[in-house]
Design a protein that fits this description.
By secondary structure, this protein is of the alpha/beta class. Helices cover 36% and strands 13% of the residues. The protein has 6 helices and 5 strands. Strands 1-2-3 form a 3-stranded parallel β-sheet, covered by helices on one side. A two-stranded antiparallel sheet has the order 4-5.
Amino acid sequence: MLTGVLIPSEGIINAPHENEIVYQLQGIPFLNILKGKDIVSLFLKSDVNKEISKITMESFHSLDTREKELLERLWNLPVGKMSLGEKRWLIVSLICQMDRKLYIFDEPTSGVDPDSRIKLVKRLEELSKKENTLVLMSTHILHELEYLDCILYLLHNEKIIFQGTYNEFLTLTETKNPDIAFYKLTTSI
């Protein structure tokens, strides 16, 4: 319904207030001269649901040693000198620090290295387990869904062609490869 793929026939949608929704854009619309710490400050200080007086690297929670090292490296680095994956990791990690009811991620792991991708996907799953929280994620990397406890909605030509679990998706198409499964479903239409 949000995108016009589903047309409502009747009823009321109880959506969260706009202050309870956060959307991660595909692009990174920031000036290249801003530094990592500026982006962190912008995100965390704009979180109307949290009161933060001072932004430091310790403002992040649940980062492992490697992620803390990455954050330290990005802290004073201008956005224009960050790789696409570094920018994406920073933005998605920041969004996960925010307190919302609805999180919408548009290909959050695109361009991110394998280690960081695994950690981001795990963070998104943890986020989805919070009470009264919904996480929507679009992806073209179907393999990363294998370890997520989630419901898949596969879209093709503006129609939902599958709804179910990852295992149901593979079973339906009699393959263990999700890319082949998607191909089978989209070419049989």
